[in-house]
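Encoded backbone
================
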Amino acid sequence: MPLKTIYVVRHGYRSNWTTDPISGETSSTVPSPTNIPSDPALSAYGVQQAAQLAELAKLLEPPVARIYTSPFFRCVQTITPFAERLTNVPLICDRGLGEWYGTARFTHPSPAPLEILRKFFPTLMEKSTLVPSANGESIAELHDRTAFAVTSIIAECDTDSAHAETAILICTHAATMISLGRVLTGIMPEDVNEQDFHAYTCSISTFERKKGNQEPTAPIELWRPGQRVPDVGWRGNGVLGGWRCLKNADTTHLSGGGERGWHFSGEESFIEDMANEAIKAESTKRQCGTVQDGVGLSGVNERGSKL
């Protein structure tokens, strides 16, 4: 039976971290359970949000038959209480649903390996459709990565004769949640910064497959390390025939309503940030009459609070 409904959730409130845009070194004031500073756990308020989200587990119709999540700790922690309320529903982490960091010359953070995550989430499984570039992605590359990941997931559900899933749930991050809305519907705004699909903490969006496009899908070609992300032709059509957005980041289940919303604001490139900071620093020194040839960027920006 072909998949008919996809629920998309953003993780709850989390602890913060900062990134040095020159070295890429990350740091946090609250220790991470995985010992990766850029892989924080939920805050106490985020845990409360996750508990409120879990109240929907047996109320959604059609019911969730399979859960996919980003492997970052905050996402798995968010959706685990939801999964625990269901029976025989697999919880699968997929790196194709992971975080977006913009672009940089240094290596971006990776999530903890499955053996570490299983110390906290024993039933967690992994089946990654692809692995994002360690040097980050442009906004366009993020959308193509998201499109390929969700296309592969849908195709797997469509062709799995051992199961008859009609609804799945995906737990991910703000940028990935927005791009999922765009690639499922096929609607990419001219201005990528447009606030079309929302992404509040622990909000839930609902997408329904368009009528007439519910025939089971043929298996998708596998992605291989080092390979360019395949183009699945989502622009204008939406993946696999297109989907309708029935609910856009609904927060009626949350006592605090919609909080910590996020939207794109340019490419958010560490490379651009470094260049701009260098220009500003040189301009300031020239104005003060203290600039010296060969003096490079010395300032450090803090990143990471938005995702």
Observations:
- The radius of gyration is 20 Å.
- The CA atoms of residues 6 and 237 lie 17 Å apart.
